[in-house]
Amino acid sequence: MSIRNWFAVKINHDYFSLSSKMENIKYFAEQGFLFNHLIDRIKWHYAPSFFYVLRFPSHIDIEASNMCQMSCPMCGRHLMKNIKQGHMDFDLYKKIIDECSREKVYSIKLSWRGEPLLNPNIAKMINYAKEKGIKDVAFLTNGERLNENLTNQLIESGLDWISISFDGLNDVYEKIRYPAKFEKAVKEIKYIKKAREQKRLKKPLIRIQSIWSAIKNNPDEFKDFWKPVADRINFIADQIRSREEKDFSHDPNYICQSPWQRICIMWDGRVAQCHGDYLERNILGDVKANTLREIWHGEKFNNLRSLMRNKKRLDTPPCKICCDGGITQEENIIVEDKKMKILKYIGQELDVASMDARPGARK
């Protein structure tokens, strides 16, 4: 494999931060595991770049629930009409975490296709992972179910960071994130910081995340609004995940990083090809029947890596509808009078004006 091909693997290429990189270093130093974090980042970046299969992945995605109370226009959940839904059983979760603990897994994320706060055991799940020595426990949430009681449970469970999807401000947010209400959502997020400070803790780290199209007309306003509350303010490139037939061009040279970085476990214990396999079209194993290590080094996972290395990813059904492999182009934006370079997916731009999840609005 040539050096040129090593750099075909694009690491976190569609995710951008409006916050300083030094803030990340400071946070992990304060938590006392900066060294562990740096080792994890080395594995995260260089394992896929050199097609090196780690003994065990340092990150595991665990789907606490694949259910959701929202119907955001850009979300791939619109394709899941025939997908069985549910919450992960706690005993199954313990089995997963016990192996992760033995294998010294660095981080887990308790979310994927659904809303983790719908799982009634979410705080208990976080606490169990922390008791078992997982350094970094987090999840992505729409935040609509947050309240003071639940927030205190999450903080006391040992949650390391919470990433809240918050697309735009005011009316833009309420149209995309129906049935959430802007003022209530802001109030609950502010309470996370207040409760954290009252307990004299530095975690969970609060991260606000938006799709780019919802803030592109005034990213400074979005950043200024959240700066007093959030520890990190991020945005992701626009992607059209809500249509099965994607009308954009695939990048023939794209090599996905995922098969060398992580395992994605669905709520029922089956292992999906990746976090882009919303429709469960390539199941690589089942933790009820095999260990994670057996699945990670199994024939199906190795075949997937081989397809990626040989640039034949479109031979797998999930990759055919995956947004990540679309052609991108660089774009310069200005945030707080500073130039910032981002990547934009060609043909995947979202029209915020037409994005409305309220009843009767979606066509």
Write a structural description:
α5 (122-131) runs parallel beside α6 (148-157) and α6 crosses α8. The model is unreliable at 1-7 (pLDDT under 50). With 363 residues, this protein is an alpha/beta fold. Strands 1-7-6-5-4-3-2-8-9-10 form a ten-stranded mixed beta sheet. Strands 11-12 form a two-stranded antiparallel ribbon. It has helices spanning 3-6, 21-31, 34-49, 90-102, 122-131, 148-157, 170-176, 182-198, 219-226, 292-296, 299-309, 317-320, and strands at 15-17, 59-62, 107-109, 136-141, 161-165, 205-211, 232-236, 262-265, 270-272, 283-286, 328-335, 338-345. The chain contains twelve helices and twelve strands. The N and C termini lie far apart (47 Å). It has a single domain (36-72, 80-238, 254-314), classed as TIM Barrel. Helices cover 32% and strands 17% of the residues.
Cα gyration radius (Å):
20 Å
Distance between the termini: 47 Å
Give the low-confidence spans: 1-7
Largest sheet: 10 strands, mixed
- Fold-level CATH name: TIM Barrel
Q: Major sheet: order of its strands?
A: 1-7-6-5-4-3-2-8-9-10
